[in-house]
Write a structure and sequence with these properties.
Length: 405
């Protein structure tokens, strides 16, 4: 059975490559979606083939091996990371058929970029405490409030928004989930500059923004359970794309080692080699563990195993880039030529993505974005290891009565 699916996938990818050039990104990815090769675990007609998510590896392998075309094949993570990694599974699990038809394909092709409007100045780890209000007005909702750290909001067409619809209910019960048009009247996006010099994220102000009720995902008051689908998929997306052996951050380190390793047969060489090899083994162990989790995962809301990959890969990324900077010695202290202090071109910024110092600085955010490592450890403790839950004194009282700073 498994072999038949594999054969079918390989043959569909071959047809795809014969019919459309990957150089035309949107057309190629549109055809990939139509052939069910976008996310193979999605149902037929929605970009998938209804098979186990582990089979996505075959698509990636075939695309990477396409001799003449592989350099043009764009990775989901660079093209539309939030839309594909988190928006698509949430829409698939919670939207009407009509909304799925409208949103899934242009999300996968990258024609419509997505962002995630969860965090607020007073609600990050405790996102269920959020204060942005949505009030129903006929078949529309009127939204006012502020979000923060919203990655890619400045280039987004759609935002996944959780807003408070019933302040008199306990915090987890009074929220509703919407897909908001980022170009709608009343949406104001302002850049926030990071340590790297990039402004990949933003503050987003909403002043009486109107959202049609058709763009509500889940029932009124079910925003928390819809948000869990987004958050669990975010952890899986951040915790690991499963590339080929030796790819990703560790390839970066090997490259730096080639250029900057100490003189051979010196004690320094042996000590540094030991550190690099230790990181390589850890990266390979994580890659195989992530692949195994992907093979076993089911469609919709992944389990807490996403938190394990997320916490380990955050620490590992930091250690890898710190090692690369150390190998560079004094050269690691300066930015390479081309560094600008204020860049908004995050998605195509080859300098940021591929320089050692840029990647080192960016890796500091890994243990904060998508939920901090402390919060991931709480989830692993409670949901994987079965340890007692943290006390939550405000869980059952109306949100409006919770004291806020
Ligand atoms: C690069 C980057 C991109 C981001 N992109 C987005 C985005 O696109 N959309 C979005 O909505 N958000 C985004 N975020 C926000 C991110 O989700 C939050 O920063 C994160 O959830 C932490 O929230 P906070 O910053 O409010 O910190 P706080 O929640 O105030 O936490 C402060 C400290 O307290 C610790 N802490 C808090 N609660 C607990 C607890 N219960 N147990 C133990 N320790 C605890 C935390 O670990 C942290 O060290 C992004 C963040 C970064 C860095």
């Amino acid at each position: 059975m498994a072999d038949k699916v594999e054969e079918e996938i390989r043959s569909r990818v071959k047809d795809l490559l014969a019919e459309v050039s990957p150089a035309d990104v949107h057309e190629f990815r549109g055809a990939q979606f139509d052939k069910g090769l976008a996310l193979v675990h999605f149902p037929e007609g929605y970009g998938g083939m209804g098979v186990s998510p582990g089979y996505q590896r075959i698509v990636l392998e075939e695309l990477a091996n396409a001799k003449d075309n592989s350099k043009d094949v764009r990775s989901d993570l660079l093209l539309n990371p939030i839309g594909i990694g988190m928006g698509m599974p949430t829409v698939l699990s919670h939207a009407s058929d009509e909304v799925k038809k409208q949103l899934l394909r242009p999300c996968f092709t990258g024609e419509e970029i997505w962002c995630q409007l969860f965090s607020e100045p007073g609600a990050g780890s405790d996102v269920a405490g959020l204060a942005t209000r949505a009030i129903q007005d006929g078949d529309e909702w009127v939204v006012s409030g502020q979000k923060v750290w919203t990655s890619l909001a400045h280039v987004s067409k759609w935002g996944m928004l959780v807003a408070r619809t019933d302040p008199e209910l306990p915090k987890h019960k009074g929220m509703t989930y919407f897909v908001m048009d980022m170009k709608a009247e009343g949406v104001d996006v302002r850049p926030l500059y990071q340590l790297t010099g990039d402004a990949e994220f933003n503050e987003v102000y909403m002043d009486e923004v109107r959202i049609p009720d058709t763009m509500r995902l889940g029932e009124r008051g079910q925003g928390w359970s819809v948000a869990i689908t987004t958050l669990m998929n975010e952890r899986v997306a951040l915790g690991g794309t499963v590339g080929p052996r030796g790819s990703g951050a560790i390839a970066f380190l090997m490259d730096t080692w080639e250029k900057f390793h100490p003189e051979k047969d010196t004690p320094e060489y042996r000590v540094r080699l030991d550190r690099v090899m230790d990181l390589w083994v850890k990266a390979e162990t994580l890659r195989l563990t992530t692949q195994r989790a992907k093979d076993n995962s089911s469609v919709g809301t992944p389990g807490p195993e996403g938190s394990v990959g997320k916490v380990i890969s955050s620490d590992l990324n930091k250690a890898i880039y710190a090692c690369a900077i150390d190998l560079m010695g004094a050269a690691g202290l300066i930015h390479e030529k081309g560094y600008t202090l204020a860049s908004r071109e995050m998605s195509d910024s080859s300098y940021r993505t591929f320089s050692v110092s840029g990647s080192f600085l960016r890796s500091r955010a890994n243990s904060i974005e998508g939920g901090t490592s402390e919060v991931m450890r709480n989830i692993i403790g409670e949901r994987v290891l079965g340890l007692p839950k943290e006390p939550q004194v405000d869980r059952d009282i109306p949100w409006s009565e919770i004291k806020r700073g």
